[in-house]
Amino acid sequence: MIACAVCMQAQSGAAVNGLHAAVLTLVVVTVVVLAGFGRFVIRVARRQ
Amino acid sequence: MRASSVFSRDHKVVGLQYGITSLLFLLIGFALVLLIRWQLAHVGVAAPWLMHLVGQTNAPGGIMAPEFYNQLGAMHGTIMVFLAVVPLAVGAFGNYLIPLMLGAPDMAFPRLNMLSYWIYLVAGLVMLTSFVLPGGAANSGWTSYPPLSIIATTGQTWWLCGMFLLIVSSLFSSINIITTILQLRAPGMRMMDLPFFVWAQLVTSFLLLLAFPPLQGAAILQLMDRLAHTSFFLPTGLMVSDKMLNISGGGSPILWQHLFWFLGHPEVYVLILPAFGIVAHVISNETRKPLWGQRLMVYATLFMGFMSFLVWAHHMFLTGMGPTMSGFFQVTTMIISIPSVIIVTGLLLSLYGGSIRFTVPMMFALAFLPMFGLGGLTGLPLGLAATDIPLHDTYYVVGHFHYVVAPGTLFALFAGIYYWFPRITGKKLNDTLGVVHFWGSLIGMNGIFLPMLIQGLAGVNRRLYDGGLSYQHAASLAHLNRGQFYSAIFLGVVQLVFIGNFIRTLMKRRDADDNPWSATTLEWSVPRPANHHAPIPFTTSARHDTGVSNVTLGFWLFLASEVMLFGAMFSAYALLRVSADSWPHGRFVLNGSMALANTLLLLVAAVTAWLARQLGPKVERSGYLWVSIVASLGFIAVKVFEFRAEVVAGMLPRTSTFFATYFTLTGLHAVHVIGAIAAAVWILATTKRVTEAITVGRLKCLVLYWGLVEIVWLAILGAVYLT
């Protein structure tokens, strides 16, 4: 892979797809963790 | 001074240690910026004093070397953000005030609290020491973008090690603060009864907990690139000084930006949320009325915390991520401006109808509002790709960011120092000197940062060693640099007034009453000094409204940070794999039978740890724990054989991005298995010295930890070995 901002302005291609996969992975992990915290917060709120 | 007071676990002592240390770092960071501003205002002017001050290497003939200028820029940003402002806002104010505001005896984990401070201090010293290394300190910007940071001098390695330690310290601190707030509230104190300051600290700690681990992962990868010659961040065909680097290539510099900004943007809220909390507290007291819409502000803070994890790529529009991705991040960025507006509006409306007292802390708090507003509003064009692309590499960004952090956050922190100084010392800082400090800081900071916005809109690039003299469009604005330099000097003089006031007040006899601001909040009602040593409640027993003990909650928080760490590593794996021209199939290249053996060993280790947790009699429990330890040691032994065979066969981390990923992921996982072994041995060794409840609590944590280690291994197995 050759890093080139101009090439990467393309809508598709390996570099862009790679970045999409990375972002998606991190977003999914983050949302799952935050959802876990959300569940805990709701539990605390209900017990109060 | 006794060792017990230096290595104190008292939250007030730890808070003060954080406060003094971070103020010293603030001073050092400011000293660096004076040198930067001097250089930009006096390009090519020889100054003998500079050579005497920083040495012949850094300023040959009294003219600052470009390499040294880069070090100043990188270290100024690093010191100010990571070593000064955040530790002051969270470590100092959080540690000192949260237990007092909650009616708690101390932080939930006092020993961890002490440890977090000392690790922070070591991290800071590691970073500062790098100035005396050959090649000097890190010089690739505070963002450490590769490939520059990979080929940089040794100072960058120290920067990474310092950052790694800083993240560990930050994780300890955030686990402590979250657990303290959720578990140690006074009986009957509901979450919505908490002061807004405490809410701001709670959300800030969540951001630190979850946003820092990806940078920790990124630091590991960059250390691998620098020390093991892997190519996580280095693309194929990279030329340096007309020579092609002898590397495998296949990596991506964008990967670093992706992981750095995942921390970097929540970090902005880490900087600003505690400031909101302090300002809200001061405004509420100095208007003699409750905050307007506190509940709404709390919801806005929570929403801001959640959304701050979904905006990071707006720092990367220039990399070209395609319109779909950039569209998503533009929308989330615009959305996150809404809670900021709600909070600032709430603070403004809180002034309405109030009996306002223009005390020194109130003056800083009031100035915070328009200054932060200016910083926030100038950020909107940077959240949209069309306007960000021409502005991104200009001084406009520097001006925007500094308005948020300097007359924004720092003003709030000064407000806090003036406000709580009598609570801490029993002495009130001099008002006249405080007013001089306030007006001088307001004028000085605007004198530095306002011209930056003008320079940026004219297209003057940031990071220019000559202040833009070599560019026609920038040269016409170069005179502004001189005004900024004089403003910086003025600002420095005004800070001397503050330092003088600080020391003078500390040295004089106690003159303030216990509550000079007539405050009604809980932290003022505790007698000063409040050295109560009541036992920490809920260490092993569950609190009724959270349903968990301190240890269990703290451990779950730790696991959440670990999930984020491995999430970032798998995110890196996804980027490298999907964007690779070719990616070997692990099942053909790696040793599948050893992986299968290790899977079975891990399973045995986890199940026996679980059985030890389930069983009551100590003899049986010890037996199961020993089996767990032996199985884990077997896993490590197999891993060592596997690595050795691969290295002998010439499959090294530097061979390809695939092997770099394989060695790093499995190596990091193996470190966690070693952690489990150490934990099991520790539980066995201490079981006779602690109560049954404590041992059971520890075993519960061990089982949870094994759950994480198992899940990560299965993910590695699927992603690396079997595909």
At a glance:
Chain A has 48 residues and is mainly alpha-helical. Chain A is built from one helix and no strands.
Structure in words:
The complex is a heterodimer of chains A (48) and B (723). Chain A contains 1 helix and no strands. With 48 residues, chain A is an all-alpha fold. Chain A has a domain at 21-48. The mean pLDDT of chain A is 80. Chain B has 723 residues and is mostly helical. Chain B contains 23 helices and 2 strands. Chain B has a two-stranded antiparallel ribbon with strand order 1-2. In chain B, a hairpin with a 2-residue loop joins strand 1 and strand 2. The longest helix of chain B has 37 residues, at 66-102.
Rg of chain B, rounded, reads 27 Å
Q: Which CATH-level-2 architecture of the domain at 568-721 in chain B?
A: Up-down Bundle
Q: What oligomeric state do the depicted chains represent?
A: heterodimer
- N/C terminus separation of chain B: 61 Å
Average pLDDT reading of chain B: 93
Strand content of chain A: under 5%
The biggest beta sheet of chain A reads: none
Strand order of the largest sheet of chain B: 1-2
| Class from secondary-structure proportions of chain A | mainly alpha
Q: Structural class, from helix and strand content of chain B?
A: mainly alpha
- Strand coverage percent of chain B: under 5%
CATH class of the domain at 568-721 in chain B: Mainly Alpha
What pattern of helices and strands is seen along the backbone of chain B?
HHHHHHHEEHHHHHHHHHHHHHHHH
Question: Unreliable runs of chain A, pLDDT <50, ≥5 residues?
Answer: none
What would the keywords be for this entry?
heterodimer; A: 48 residues; mainly alpha; 1 helix; 71% helix; B: 723 residues; Four Helix Bundle (Hemerythrin (Met), subunit A); two-stranded antiparallel ribbon; 2 strands; 70% helix
Please render the helix and strand layout as text.
The complex is a heterodimer of chains A (48) and B (723).
Chain A lengths: L13 H34 L1
Chain B lengths: L2 H4 L4 H31 L6 H7 L11 H37 L7 H20 L25 H29 L12 H32 L11 E2 L2 E2 L8 H34 L7 H14 L15 H29 L8 H20 L5 H7 L3 H31 L5 H27 L14 H4 L3 H29 L14 H4 L24 H30 L6 H4 L2 H23 L3 H31 L8 H30 L5 H30 L2
Antiparallel strand pairs in B: 1-2
Helix pairs in contact in B: 2-4, 2-5, 2-16, 4-5, 4-6, 4-7, 4-8, 4-13, 5-6, 6-7, 6-18, 7-8, 7-9, 7-18, 8-10, 8-11, 8-13, 9-10, 11-13, 11-14, 13-14, 14-16, 18-22, 18-23, 20-21, 20-23, 21-22, 22-23
